[in-house]
Design goal:
By secondary structure, the chain is an alpha+beta fold. About 20% of the residues lie in helices and about 25% in strands. A 7-stranded mixed β-barrel has the order 1-2-3-4-5-7-6. A 5-stranded antiparallel β-sheet has the order 9-10-8-11-12. It has a 4-stranded mixed β-sheet with strand order 15-21-20-17, with helices on one face. Helix 2 packs antiparallel against helix 5 and helix 5 packs across helix 8. The N terminus is likely disordered.
Length: about 675
C-alpha cells in the first residue's frame, strides 16, 4: 500500500499541495503564464554561448496571482540549443531562492521546450510514471505557456532542475554526499569529469569540486561499481540503494531512453550508498528516435526486447537473476498504471484532454510546425499532430504488452486490464481509440512542411499485434547494442525538410503474433492517501477532466473544478471514474501536520528522532534552536532529529508546511 500511495502523493507534489481556492471560476486561466523580458531585448535570438543575460520575469498562476522579479536567463540544453532551433529551452535564476507555483524553493528553474517531441507528451508521461514508481527527488513540473520579449513561444514544461537543495535532491556535500551525471563524450570547460570502471561521469555536486573531492568520488565509485560487477547480492545491496535502482530501471526500460548510456543519467551518493536517479530528459524516448542513425537507436525504436540492461551499471545488475525478480515484482505492483498509460482515458489521453487548447496554440499561434524535422537523431515526424500522437500511444501499448509477456504478468489477475474502450472519443480534434501496434514504415512520409494550423483528422483503428519476445531473462537481451558509440554526432536539420529517402527500413520485430487476452471484469485501483490539509486547501485530481466522481462524505471534502477541497477534519473516500478504471482516494484530512511527540528527553551529546504525522511537503530550515538543544537534521519529510547540547529544559520550534510546531526538550 505504501508504494501504491506514491501515485497520488506524487501528483500532490507535482501540482502543488498548498494552492489557493479560486474565488471566482471566471478568473481562472488554463495554465500558468510566464513572461520574460530581457534587458537587451535579444531573448528570441539568444544563444547558449552568450550565457546568462539580465531580464525580468512575471509568473501568473491559474488563480491570477502574479509574482514578478528580476532574473538571469540563459539558453539551456545541448542539441536543443543549436542555433537553428528557434524554440529554445531556458534556465532562469533568481538572486535568492523563491517558491515558484508551489513547487518548492530554488534559485534555478528550467523551461523545457520539448521541441523534438511532436506530441509534447513524452516528458509529461515519463515524469508522471517516475512519480508513480516513487523515484525519490523526481522533479516537480507544470505545463505553462511562455512569452519571450513579448513573443509568444508556446507550450513549455517548467521543471525543478536536477540540483541539490532542501526542496530538490537533499544531499549534504559537507557530509561526503555527491551527485554525478553519466556523460560519455561531452566536454564543457566548467565541468569536472572522471572515469570509473570504463564509465565516464560529470560531477554535478559539489559544484566546484577540489582535487581531493574528485579523488574521493572516484575511489568511492570504483568500490561501488566493482562490487556491482563481482559482489554477492548482500554485498551489492550494502553499496547501492537497490529499491531506487529497480524503480529507475523500470522507468527507463519501459521508455527505452536512447541516451541512457550517453547523457542525462544521474546518480547520487548519500549516507554511504549510491542511489539511481533522479530522472531527466525524455523527449528522445518511446520510439521518438531515428532507427537508421545507429544500432543503439534502432534498438531503442523497437517496442520489443530489452534495452537498458545493456548499459552502464545495469549491464552487470541485469545479469543477476535476483534483480530480475525484483524488477518483475515492481512491474507487477504498478501494472495497472503501466497499462493505463496508453489506454483510452488514461495518462496520455488525460494530457491531451487537459491541455488541448494549450497544445493547439503551441502549433498554431506560436507557429511551430508539427511535422518539422529538426535534428538527425529524432524520428521523422508524421504530417499531423493526430498521427504523431497515435504513433506514440501505439508504441506505449506495444511496449506494455511486451513487458507484460516478459515479466510473465497475467493481466486478468491485475486490478485492471487497462483495455482500450471502443466508444467514440469525445474530443473532436483527436481520435485516440486507434491503439494499433503495427510499426510504421519509412513510406509514411509526412507532407510538406507547413506552419498552417493543423487540420483535424480521424485515424482508423488497426488490428492490434505484439512482437513476440525472444528473451526471457536479463542475461540474454534481445538486442545487444554497443556500450557506447563514440562516433555519435547530433546534427541539426537546418532547412527543415524531411529526408527524401530513408537509407534502411526501420527495424521491426522478426515475427509478430497477436496476443489475445481474455478480458476480465475491470477492478478498481485503490490509492491510500494520508494528506495533511487545512480547511480550504485543495488536492488536485490525477485526471482532472474526467467529469465523473463519487464522494462518501460531502461534509469532510467536496469536489470542484477537478480538485478535492478539504472542509474539516475527518476521513473521506473519493472515486475518480476514467472509463473502466476507478481511482479511489482514501483521503484523511487533518487540520495540520503535527509532531509524534510534544516533549522528549535526550542525553547531552546524543540525538533522538521525532516523527512528523501527516503529509509534510516541506520541513524547512527555519528552526528556532536554543543553546540547550537543536534540530540537527531532517533525514526526510517525515522525521526530524534533535541533539542535546546542555543539561536543562528548553523549547524548540520547527516549521512544517508553514505551520510552527513546538517541541519541549529535557536534556539530561
Amino acid at each position: 500500500m505504501k508504494k501504491i500511495t506514491a501515485l497520488v502523493l506524487s501528483f500532490i507534489i507535482l501540482t502543488g499541495l498548498l494552492v489557493p481556492v479560486y474565488a471566482a471560476d471566471e478568473n481562472k486561466i488554463e495554465v500558468p503564464k510566464i513572461k520574460i523580458t530581457t534587458v537587451s531585448g535579444i531573448g528570441t535570438s539568444l544563444q547558449k554561448a552568450q550565457g546568462y543575460v539580465d531580464a525580468s520575469i512575471s509568473i501568473t498562476d491559474t488563480d491570477n496571482t502574479t509574482v514578478s522579479d528580476s532574473v538571469l536567463v540563459k539558453v539551456r540544453g545541448n542539441s536543443t540549443a543549436f542555433e537553428s532551433i528557434a524554440k529554445k529551452s531556458y534556465t532562469f535564476k533568481f538572486d535568492k531562492k523563491k517558491n515558484v507555483l508551489n513547487m518548492g524553493s530554488g534559485k534555478k528553474w528550467a523551461l523545457v521546450s520539448n521541441i523534438y517531441d511532436p506530441t509534447l507528451a513524452r516528458n509529461y508521461t515519463a515524469f508522471s510514471l517516475a512519480r508513480e514508481l516513487g523515484i525519490q527527488y523526481t522533479s516537480d513540473f507544470k505545463v505553462v505557456e511562455v512569452w519571450m520579449d513579448n513573443s509568444f513561444r508556446g507550450c513549455y514544461l517548467l521543471f525543478e532542475p536536477v540540483d541539490k537543495g532542501n526542496d530538490r535532491v537533499n544531499i549534504d556535500v559537507n557530509e561526503n554526499d555527491f551527485m554525478l551525471e553519466l556523460e560519455a563524450l561531452r566536454e564543457e570547460d566548467d565541468v569536472t569529469y572522471f572515469k570509473s570502471n570504463g564509465i565516464r561521469f560529470a560531477v554535478s555536486e559539489p559544484d566546484s569540486p577540489s582535487a581531493e573531492d574528485v579523488s574521493y568520488m572516484q575511489s568511492t565509485m570504483d568500490d561501488v561499481i566493482s562490487t556491482v560487477k563481482n559482489g554477492s547480492e548482500d554485498e551489492i545491496k550494502s553499496k547501492i540503494d537497490i529499491e531506487s535502482f529497480v524503480k529507475f530501471y523500470l522507468l527507463n526500460e519501459f521508455l527505452k531512453t536512447v541516451d541512457f548510456d550517453f547523457s542525462s543519467v544521474f546518480y547520487y551518493y548519500k549516507d554511504g550508498k549510491l542511489y539511481a536517479g533522479p530522472p531527466w530528459d525524455y523527449d528522445l524516448s518511446s520510439g521518438n528516435v531515428n532507427a537508421d542513425f545507429s544500432s543503439r537507436y534502432a534498438s531503442s525504436y523497437k517496442t520489443d526486447g530489452l534495452f537498458i540492461s545493456n548499459y552502464n551499471l545495469y549491464k552487470w545488475l541485469c545479469a543477476k537473476p535476483w534483480f530480475y525478480d525484483l524488477a518483475k515484482s515492481e512491474f507487477t505492483e504498478h501494472y495497472g498504471y503501466f497499462a493505463s498509460i496508453p489506454a483510452d482515458g488514461g495518462v496520455i489521453d488525460s494530457f491531451y484532454n487537459t491541455y488541448e487548447n494549450v497544445i493547439k496554440r503551441n502549433f498554431n499561434d506560436a507557429g511551430w510546425p508539427v511535422n518539422r524535422y529538426y535534428v538527425n537523431v529524432m524520428k521523422y515526424p508524421l504530417a499531423t499532430y493526430e498521427e504523431n500522437y497515435d504513433f506514440y500511444v501505439n508504441w506505449c501499448k506495444e511496449r506494455v504488452d511486451w513487458l507484460t509477456e516478459y515479466f510473465e504478468v497475467d493481466p486478468s489477475t491485475m486490478p485492471t486490464t487497462a483495455e482500450a474502450t471502443t466508444e467514440e472519443p469525445t474530443t473532436e480534434a483527436l481520435t485516440t481509440q486507434a491503439l494499433s501496434t503495427e510499426q510504421p514504415t519509412t513510406s509514411q512520409e509526412p507532407t510538406e512542411n507547413t506552419s498552417e494550423p493543423v487540420e483535424s483528422t480521424s485515424v482508423e483503428p488497426k488490428e492490434t499485434t505484439t512482437a513476440e519476445p525472444t528473451s526471457t531473462s536479463f542475461i540474454e537481451p534481445t538486442t545487444s547494442a554497443p556500450a557506447t558509440e563514440p562516433d555519435e554526432t547530433t546534427i541539426p536539420n537546418t532547412d527543415g525538410t524531411q529526408p527524401t529517402e530513408s537509407t534502411t527500413e526501420p527495424v521491426t520485430a522478426d515475427t509478430t503474433v497477436p496476443i489475445t487476452t481474455e478480458p476480465s471484469t475491470p477492478k478498481s485501483i485503490s490509492f491510500s492517501v494520508d494528506a495533511a490539509l487545512k480547511a480550504g486547501q485543495t488536492l488536485p485530481f490525477i485526471f482532472p477532466n474526467t467529469g465523473e466522481f463519487k464522494i462518501s462524505d460531502t461534509t469532510t471534502a467536496v469536489v470542484k473544478n477537478g480538485e478535492i477541497i478539504a472542509l474539516k477534519k475527518g476521513e473521506v473516500t473519493i472515486t475518480e471514474i476514467i472509463g473502466n478504471i476507478s481511482l479511489i482516494h482514501n483521503l484523511k484530512v487533518t487540520t495540520s501536520p503535527k509532531l509524534g511527540k510534544t516533549s522528549i528527553t535526550v542525553k547531552k551529546g546524543k540525538s533522538k528522532t521525532v516523527k512528523i504525522i501527516g503529509k509534510a511537503k516541506a520541513v524547512n530550515n527555519k528552526y528556532k534552536n536554543t543553546k540547550k538543544a537543536k534540530i540537527v537534521s531532517k533525514k526526510s519529510s517525515s522525521t526530524i532529529k534533535i541533539r542535546g547540547l546542555k543539561k536543562g529544559k528548553t523549547t524548540l520550534y520547527v516549521f512544517v508546511n508553514g505551520v510552527k510546531l513546538k517541541l519541549k526538550v529535557k536534556v539530561k
